[in-house]
Design a protein that fits this description.
The protein is mainly α and 95 residues long. It has one domain. 58% of the residues lie in helices and 0% in strands. α2 packs across α4.
Length: 95
């Protein structure tokens, strides 16, 4: 069984489609964060193989070792990312 469950993530406030969309957006942010850290680590290299640390050791372990979607789900569950849903009344004026 997967943890956290879909019910734990949605908390009855959204449907699965909205959760999937939010997770994908968070995963994109995490991937961008990984790329930024990787680029910064490459720029920090001096070219001296004896004194330079490996690039992978300069990147956040969570970003380096886990899949972006898995990190996104964990961050959504812990509340580090918040899904901001529009109110239904915002759309009722347009109809």
């Amino acid at each position: 069984m997967l943890h956290p469950t879909i019910d734990e993530l949605t908390k009855g406030k959204m449907n699965r489609y909205e959760l999937a969309l939010a997770t994908a957006k968070c995963a994109r942010l995490i991937t961008d964060e990984y790329v930024r850290q990787h680029d910064a680590a490459e720029r920090a290299q001096t070219g001296n193989k004896e004194t330079d640390k490996p690039i992978q050791s300069m990147i956040d372990r969570e970003l380096r070792d886990e899949k972006a979607v898995q990190v996104a789900v964990g961050r959504l569950y812990r509340g580090e990312y918040v899904i901001d849903l529009p109110d239904e009344k915002d759309f009722s004026d347009e109809i």
